[in-house]
Each structure stands twice: as C-alpha cells, then as structure tokens.
Task: structure prediction
Amino acid sequence: MLRRQSIDVPLLLTALLLSLFGLAMVFSAGQNDSPDPGLEMLWRRQFLLLGVAMSAGWVVSRASVRLIEWSAWPLYLLSIVLLLAVLVFGSGGGTARSMSGWLTVAGRRIGQPSELAKLATTLMLARVLAGQRDSIRSLLDLWKPLAVVGVPWVLVMLQPDLGTGMVFIGICFAMLFWAGVPWQLLLMLASPGISLILAFSTGVWGAWFLILVALVLWYRPYLAEGAVLIVVNLVMGVAAPILWDKLKPYQQRRFLVFIDPAYDAQGAGYNVIQSKVAIGSGGLFGKGFTLGTQKRGSFLPERQTDFIFAIVGEELGFLGVVVALALFLALFLRSTRVAARAADAFPSLVAFGLMSAWLVHVIVNIGMTLNLMPVTGIPLPFFSYGGSFLLVSWLAVAVLLRISSEGRGQPDAIGL
Amino acid sequence: MSYHPHSVLKRARVARVFLLLAFGALGGAFFRTQVLQNAEFVLVSETNRLREVPLPGARGIIYDRNGQIIAENLPGYSVSILSPTADSLRSALQSLSKIIAVDSAQQALALRRYRAAPTRPAVIFNDASFQVVSVLEERRAEFPGLIIQSTPKRFYPDGPAVAALVGYTGEISEAQLAQPRYEGYKAGQQVGKGGLELQYEERLRAREGQRFVEVDARNRVVRDNGVRPEVPPQAPQPLRTNIDLELQRFAHEYFGDSLRGAVVALDPKTGGVLALYSAPSYDINKFIGGAPFSFYEALRTDPHRPLVNRALAGTYAPASTWKLATAVLGLERGLVTMDTRMPTPCTGGYYYGRVFKCWDKKGHGDITLAQAIAKSCDVYFYQLGLRIGLTNLLAGGVKLGFNRKTGVDLPFEGTPVWFADTKYFDRKYGARGWNKSVVLSLSIGQADNAQTPISMAKFYTALATDGYAATPHVVDRPAERTRILNVTPEQLAGIKLALSDVLTRGTAAGAQIQGLTIAGKTGTAQVNGQEDNAWFVGYAPADDPKIVVAIIIEEGLHGSTAAKVATKLMEKFLKAKLTLNVVTND
Result:
C-alpha cells in the first residue's frame, strides 16, 4: 500500500509540470492564423486524456511491485497479440501515414499497441534479467532477454515503425547495461548495427572492423561466438547497400534528408527545415506564447505531435527550451535515483527501463527538431498530442512512484 | 543480475554522467541555433510569412503647351493572385473561371506572369471591371492569395488625335526584360510601347511602392496591413510638351476616318513640335489593360496601314515643296539670282533627250526664279537643276539634311531617301544605263527622293528663319539650330517673298486667310498606280514666323488642298495665341 508520506514528490511534481507545459504547447499548436477547428479543440481532449491518464496512474500506483511483476507475462502476451492484430487491421497516422500502427475497430482508431508494448516489454525484460542468476559473460547468455525484446521489435519493424524500433533497442541496451552486462559485450552486441551504418564508407567501416577484431581477441568470447560475430559484421558491411535498396523510398528519403535537408526541401526535408527555422527564429526569449509565426502560418508541420518542441523553441525561445530540458533532465535523474534505490533487482530494472524509454523518445524527438536525428516520427513524452503515449507515460510515472515508495529508505547512502 | 548496492551505485553514476552529457549537448545545439544563428533564421521565417505586394503607381502625366492633358491616369482595379506553385495557381484560375469569365488565353498569360516572377502576385486582370471586382470581393474567402487593388490605368482623353504622338503603354515583354534599358523592371509592369511613352519611359515610369501582407504556408493572406510599414508609390514629375492639343484635334477632325496623310507643325525658332498627327488614326485607349488580339490584328492587316506613323516614318516624294532646295543651291553657288530668267521659256515642256513636261500645259513663259517659285514652274527648275549639275545637287541635298533623320525626340523615325552621290544610280541602272536627265526629275522633287513630313518641316524652319534649321523636339529643351542655308540675307528675303506670293497669287492662292500673311509651297507628287499626293509646307505669319506646317494628304490630288488645311491650322494656332496674349495683357 502506498503510504502518503512516502510519495516521491519531486518525481510527481516534475511529471506534472511537464504535462502542464505540454498541455500549454498543445493549446498553442491550435492557435493559427487560418483557424483549424480540428487543431483548436485538441488541447481540451488532451486535458481530458491527462485526467484519464493520471487517474489510471493513481489506480496502478496502488498495485504493489509484486503484482506488477506478476502481470508482466500477461501484459507482454497481450501486447504481442495486439501487435499481431495491428499488422492485419492497423491503419496509419501522424507523420507516418503509410504505417499501420493504430489499432482500428470499425474505423475508429483506439490506440497504438506499440505504446503498450514498450511498457510490457520493459516489465518482461526486467523479469527475465532479474531472474538471471549467473553473471553474463557471453552473448549466448543473452538469448533470453534478446528474445523478449526481439519478438515485439520484429513486429514493430513490420508495421514498419523505425522510431519505435529504435526505442526498443534503446530500452534493451539500457537495461542490459543496468543489469551489469559488460560494456565489451554490449559493444559486440551492437556491432552488426554499427557495421551496417558505417558500411556507407568503406574506409570507416574497415577501421571499425579492425577495432572489433581487436575487441574479440582481447575479450576472448567462445571461439564459435567470436567467429560468428566477425562473419555477421562482414556480411553487414557487404549487405548494407542491398538492405538500403530494400528500404521504402520514404524511409530512404528520411535518411538522405537527415544528412542534408535541402536534398528534398519541398518534400521530406521541408518539415525539418521549417522546424529548424521556427526554433532558430525564436532567439533567446521567443516570439511569445501562441505568437510563433512559423506555427501560426502553418509553416511548421505536425506541430501538435512530432514537432511540438519546435513551438517551445519558437515561442518561448532558448530560455523556454532550457526549462523544458531541465524538467526532463530532472525527471530522468530522479528516475535513475529511484532505480538505484529500488528494493530489489526487478523494480530497479523496471525503473531504469522506463527512464530509458523516455530518454530515447526525448533525445530522438528533440534531436529531430534540430535535424540532429533522422525524422522517425516518435512523440515527445508529456508534450505530443496523443492518448496512448500519455496514458503509458503516466502509468510509468505511477510504477516509478510505487517503486520509489517501496525502495530503500536512505537515498543518501548511495549518493544520489 | 548483480544487484549489489556498490555496483548499482557505479552504474547510476555512469548513467548520470551520460544524461548530463546528452542534455548538455542538446542544450548546446539549441544555443547555437537559437542564439548564435538567430539572425539567419529570423530572416528565413520573415521571408516565409511576408509577401511583398507591389503597389502600382501612376505614370507621369503628359501636358500640352497650354496645360491640357494629353495622357493621364484613371482609377482602375487589378486582380492578381499569390500562389506557392504553378499548380495551385492553375487550380485557383480554374475555380475563378467558374465565377467570372477567365478564358484560357488569360489563364495562360497569368501562368506566364507567375513563372516570370513567382514571388509576386500573378496578375490576372490588369483592368478589371467593377462588376468583376465586386463579385470577387464578395467571395474573397474562397480564394486564398487573391489580391484586388486599385491600379491606376492610363487614359488619353484625345486618344485617336494623339496616337502617333504618345504611343501607348503595355505590359513589359520578356525580350524587353532582358535588355539593359529595362534593368530593374519586373515582369507584369507597364512600359511605354511607342511615341512619347517609349521615348520618355524613364521619366514617365510609374514608381511602384510596396506593401507587405502576411501569408500562411498555403499562401493565404492572413493579415493584410500593418505587418510592416508600406512604401507608397511615388508620382513621377509630369511631362510638359510643346504640343498644342487643339491642333491635334483639328488635324484629327480634318482627316477623319477616310483620309490618309500626316501633319507636322513646328515652332521654327525653337524646333518645338506643335503638332504631329498621322492618319488614319486609332484609339490608343483600347491598348490599355491589354488589347484583345483581334483589335491589334485588325489594325495590322488594315490596307490603309494605320500603324505606320506617317508623320515620322512615311516617306513621300516631296515634289514641288523640294524646289526650294534647288533654288537655294542655285543661289548659294551664284548661278542665279531671284531675278534670273532661264534661256528656254516655259511652253509647257522642256526637251532634254525627251520632252519633260511642266505641270501646267499652257506654260509659264519667260519668268524669274521668284515667279517660278510662286507658279511652281517645272521647266524653270529643270534648267536650274542642269545648271547646278547632278553631283552638286546630290551633295547639296546632303548638306541640307535630306538624307538624315531630323533627330526628333520620338522613336521609330524613318530615314528620308536621298543619295549622296551617283554611285547609287550606277548600281540601280548600271553604269551606262542612266544619264544626266536624272537631275531634271530630282530638281523638281521627284524620282529618287523620298522625304518624311517631319524632315520637310525641319527644312522649312531654316527658310522661315535666318537659314538655321531647328531640330524638332516634343518636350521642351534648349533650341538646337544648325545653319544649313548659305545664302545672303537679301537672297533669303527674296525666297521668303516668293513663298508669300505662292499664297497671294501663286499655286495656293485659294488658301489665303484674311488678316494673316502666310508663306509656303505646294507640292503635287505623282505616285504610280494611285492619285497624286498633295503636299503643302509653309509658315506663318510670313514676316515673323511662329509656326511651320508640313502636311501631306495621300491622293489629295493637288497641293492646294493641303494648303487649305495647313493655313487653317496656322490660323487656329495663331488666333489662339492672339487671344491668349490679350488675356494676359488684361
């Protein structure tokens, strides 16, 4: 039972402030020169959704960590089923209209199962990792956690939703790190992906390959494992161009535009260019709440969802951005503290996993508004308009609050 | 997993460092974009939302010498549309065409204008009717980017009377935009297309202003005013001319729709152009706002060729009006005096290899040069021409300016036809295919001699004054005079007396005006395949000339017809001047 005096007030307050900040931005997104009733009404819906999400969070916060651990399996299975269903019945939305991320029943979009899958996979992964008795020395020891993440990841990538796929990978690596997997092993695990990216330049890839060989020789995994690793990296390096051709044209464009937005200034690059112009023109103090010209004139696309942070930059300026970033940083540091103070391995992993899921969203989404990250269309926690993610975010807050209240009493003992 | 507090603490520290680094990097990126690169992005965002809408200005007003308006501007409306792409313009035009008449040619034109200047509103109607404007105003909301604004339009109160003089205005062509003269002009702007409008384009040009409208991503105008201070258009200085609009009207009335010809009136002392008219004329107001192609085509294919500016570019055999040149050249060389008689009296013809006829079959008898001018005796001038000789006559014609443009400040002046030496005849007829008899025809203003009305008028400014020819100019400027007659004052006085006799007892006796002494010379030019052209070039008052008039009436049959019109024109000018003087003396 949640005792009143043990509520993690800083955590709750940060989440609440972020939600209100986000709500204000959704309101501002609706204030345009050419009135768009659809956009104008969104903040009311978001306000209601926030109420629903917080109520749901309150309910979940009553559940003990034990109950949460128990529910990991059913939730995980449910999300797999929903992800499968979505592949058959799903429909697109947002910047990714060609995808099928929405669960649609009778033409009404109910929610995005991938959001639930993030939460469920985090719980499941925490369960599996917490149950791992022996210390992990080899990639083969990782088969169970990798399978837990791999199944939903493949289903998400089939939608195809690259952004959410990235989130799963981020959660996976963060939790493996938190579970104490050696960094050498993490690097080896990541090596095929790194090879794939670096393969665009033969020289860079060659250098990376030599480093990998040195790492394998030094860390000395099983012989077969090392050999497979080398072969996989070789294949990735060679296969990259072929895989590139397999990508859909819009996916290719997103990568090319990431490298140079001017490549398709009127098309795929338009969003990023306009977002950067909105942010850059905001200056130190911004153009004033609801007064952003890039936003008002609809130059800024997807301003209520993917590019909502550009409104912060345009209307509230660098100062507004700093406040928002500081709130996020505070949330993440506090969550890390919760993870470090957790009573047990499972809640600790869950806390760190939830934090890392948010972190990937924040880095990728905000990075995207400045073209530091490719446009993948993943939302900004607490800001982007949308029910599923807001609900899941507040469930995460609730779980963190619960873990915090059940955690060890002397936070100073671990120096956070 | 190992959940020993010590190892967890270590990982938490790594995580914290990672978080701080990641957020520090993000903050740095925002600082760079928002603070360091701020100016650059502000510029882009302003360019995004602000559209410069040109505020059309009025062209300079053109006045005549008495302050009457030759060209002015009337309030009008233009309809244009701001479009982000050619496709959106096309669809906007299509929906427009459902409400108002926009034919496919107008649509194509609007698209061409858009491509020439995509950031400016593409003009659909330069001169929209009130009805179109009110219909569009009402349904403005349906057409984002639609701009209806008052646009002064050119108006010529006496359109047909001044067509040859002022030209007209029209939209600048793509070819013109490429010329250095039109540097700084933008597609869609109006430029002078002829006459004064073209000649004085730099002075008359409308100085357009700018206003800024705020648009959204779909180029919909979301805020119309107050976005940025507007720059009002500037009115150019009016253009004052030497023209007397009354004379233009008189000429237009006389020629009407049926006669062809031209009138040029000059101030002999300054060269100021008092009138310049070409018939048949047309209403230049119809060109304003884009003339229908059919109108232009009808003018172009009209057998009477109204588009040829006869006053400036119509070249006609000057006939007897040119005899004064022969007389001057004879006097200058001391070959004759005003009282010299020729060896062969006029019996209606002169034999030189064959018979060269005098226009008067009865013959003029044994007469002096003064009488020969008054009676326009061909036989006398045949002999004078022979005395001067072909080579000298050709060189003399060049000296008098008959092979050059007058240099009037109007475009498209034609060059008169006159040959400097005999090489031309060698080329035309073969070295032995011609003989000295050519000089006979030349000395009476026929054969290989074709002058424009304005070049004849210029020649007569020298006769009317002290031997100095004045360069014609429509817009006032210091007189530019060149001595072309090297005759003594006594000789010049004799010529003037003879020219007065033309009206008192000579070929134009019927054209005399009560109370006015007029001097001048008729001409009747034979033209193959049509009736004779009638010429008169003269000046008045004879003792102190204030106006030189050159007039040609195609197929006017006899110079005396032209003389009657010319003298009435002179009377009109001088009487008005008299009244004006009386008024000022009061």
Remarks:
- Confidence is low (pLDDT under 50) at residues 1-5, 410-416 of chain A.
- The two ends of chain A are 25 Å apart (CA to CA).
